[in-house]
User: Fold this.
Amino acid sequence: MTDTVLRLDAVNSFYGPVQVHFDLSLEVGRGEIVCLLGGNASGKSTTMKVILGLLAPRSGRVLLDGQPLTGLDTPQIVRRGVGSVPESRRLFATMTVRENVLMGAYTRKDRKAVAEDFERVLDQFPKLRERHAQQAGTLSGGEQQMVAMARALMGRPRLICLDEPTMGLSPLHVDRVLEMIQAINRLGVSVFMVEQNASLALQIAHRGYVLQTGRIVLSGDAADLARDPHIRDAYLGGAQAA
Ligand SMILES: Nc1ncnc2c1ncn2[C@@H]1O[C@H](COP(=O)(O)OP(=O)(O)O)[C@@H](O)[C@H]1O
Ligand SMILES: [Mg+2]
Assistant:
C-alpha cells in the first residue's frame, strides 16, 4: 500500500496509570475500508479517541496523509478531513434531523457551501430529506445511524471513522448501514470502522486488524481474516459464522 491516509505508529496510550494501547500500529490506505476488530474493553473506542485528538498518546504518532496530528484539537482534526460517527451515535434527541446534520458543519463559516453540502448529503440519504423536520430521538436506530453518518459527511471528510456502527440495530438496519458505509466509500472516502461484530465488519472491509487488550494480534485481508480459525473461534461464534 503506497498511499496511506491514516497511520498510527507505535501508539502507547494510558488512562492515568492504566495502559490501554501497547505499540499500536495500523494503516488505512486511500479508498480502503479497514476494520478494527476486538472484544469488549480491548481498546477500540480509545483508538478512535486517539485519532480524533480526544486522548493524547503518551508515545507514538498519528499521521493523516503523512502529517502528524500531534497537538491538534478535535475541531482542527475534523477540518483536516476526519469525520467521525461515535459509539451510540450521540445525536441531540430533541433537535431535528436537519439541526443534527448541520452540527457537522458547526465550525464552518462558509454558509453557502454548507447549504450545498447539506443538499448533497440529503441526496445521499433520501430518507433523511423526508424526515428533516422530525426530532432525531423519534427515529429508528438505523435512521439515527444515517443522521450520524450524514453529520460526519458535512465536514467533507477524506476519512470517516465509525465506532460500532451496527451496534443495537435490527438485522434489516444492519444491512442498510453496511450498504451506506460502502456507498460512502465508493464516493472516495476512506473508512476506518471499529466493530465487535467481526462477521459483519468483514463482509464489507478490505482489510482488518484484531485488537486484544491493546495489542494487534492479527491483521490481513478481510477474506483471509474471515477464514482464520482464531477469528472464527474468538469473534464469529457458532451461529454468526454459519
Ligand atoms: N475514560 C476512561 N477512563 C479510564 N479508563 C477507561 C476510560 N475509557 C475506557 N477505559 C478503559 O480502557 C479500556 C479500553 O476501553 P475501550 O477503548 O472503550 O474498549 P472497547 O471500545 O474495545 O470496548 C477498558 O479497560 C476501559 O475500561
Ligand atoms: Mg467501544
